[in-house]
Amino acid sequence: MKTVVGKVVSNKMTKSVVVAVQRMWQHPRYPKLVRRTSKFMAHDETNACNIGDEVRLESSRPLSKRKHWIVQDIIRRARIFQAPDLSQITAAKLAQSEAQASSSSTSPSTPAS
What we know:
The protein is α+β, with helices and mostly antiparallel strands. It is built from one helix and five strands, in the order βββββα. It has one helix at residues 86-106; strands at 3-10, 16-26, 33-43, 54-59, 67-76. Strand 1 and strand 2 form a beta hairpin. It is elongated. This is Small ribosomal subunit protein uS17c.
């Protein structure tokens, strides 16, 4: 079976991902490397892939009109940014302001002259 390595660019479908596979070749007339990208739709049985993951695809029988590949394994996971919860941010700010208020009230204040 043929295998290719690519990066997941979409995982919006159930049990399916779109993987971009880059290939480079030398132009026959001009001495230049040309980069081309092909997008393949692949079957992801466990919905384990996220956008940005580097995956290895294996060719298979046609699973649907456009899906002829299966995700064999995930080579490298992408770092996923998760925004902190708003309630955690407000609780941290409230605790910080209370700590500053209590420290300023316990310190002796000098009278203004």
